[in-house]
Design a protein that fits this description.
mainly alpha, two-stranded antiparallel sheet, 2 strands, about 260 residues, 7 helices, globular
Length: about 260
């Protein structure tokens, strides 16, 4: 693994966290993708960087709430479920229901793509590894030693990338892409947690679930509710009476 990168600048050695570099790259790529697919690019260009900062702050606060330690963002430690919660809160405060849905459709695929990039940083940093395995692609992480373990970070990166690409190709009414994102990410995260080493997971009380699995279930519930609301809205629109067409002045016949 490569938890840090070292290089010389003006005769001095500079050490940079590999994970931090990938988090920064993930944020930049996420903002670019969100702006590129937005119906209102200028709006998203102003909102996306703020949402990225909120997501990073929320993910760090949740990590520190679970593990303690200093609270400064520079001290490291992120929890993806905290970041997703921060994005949800930011969307709630973003205006009308339709505006929230359109922003969510732009941010959801971009955020999942950013997660995929960030997971590569997790792999290089040697955190969030999986359970021991005898499969040929098992990885021995220097920080914990033998036996070989599931490279869970790469599983997550690959599945998140596939999900993001599928969402970027999708469409539908406002909120449809975000609903599919919640369902897909929730299912992926819940299943991957089954392969995660208990030493790197956070138990959710006495429920037998991890914190990530609890958050994944909330994502699935949110996705189902969003789909139900969209279907109800579509049903109400179909039930509305069709307005009687008003003839144009040129088509009227005066007698």
């Amino acid at each position: 693994m490569a938890p840090a990168m070292r290089f010389m600048v003006a005769g001095s050695q500079v050490v940079v966290s590999t994970h931090a570099l990938f988090v920064l790259l993930a944020a930049i790529v996420g903002i670019v993708v969100a702006v590129g697919r937005a119906r209102e690019p200028l709006l998203v260009l102003g909102v996306a960087p703020c949402v990225a900062v909120i997501a990073l702050a929320a993910s760090h606060l949740l990590f520190r709430a679970q593990h303690g330690g200093p609270g400064g963002l520079w001290s490291g430690g992120l929890s993806s479920m905290g970041g997703i919660g921060g994005i949800a809160l930011a969307l709630v405060a973003s205006g009308s229901r339709r505006r929230r849905a359109e922003l969510a459709d732009a941010l959801a695929p971009a955020g999942i793509l950013a997660l995929a990039i960030g997971r590569i940083g997790c792999f290089l940093g040697g955190c969030c590894y999986g359970r021991p395995t005898e499969l040929p692609w098992g990885v021995v992480f220097p920080e914990v030693g033998p036996p070989a373990r599931h490279p869970l970070q790469l599983y997550s990166a690959g599945l998140d990338l596939l999900l993001a690409l599928a969402l970027l190709r999708g469409g539908g009414p406002p909120g449809a892409v975000a609903a599919r994102a919640c369902l897909g990410l929730g299912a992926v995260r819940f299943l991957l947690e089954l392969l995660r080493d208990p030493a790197t997971s956070d138990p959710l009380g006495a429920s037998g679930l991890t914190l990530a699995q609890g958050g994944a279930l909330l994502l699935v519930i949110a996705g189902l509710l969003m789909r139900l609301l969209m279907r109800a809205e579509a049903g109400r629109r179909r039930a509305l009476p069709v307005p009687w067409p008003v003839p144009s002045p040129a088509s009227r016949r005066w007698r």
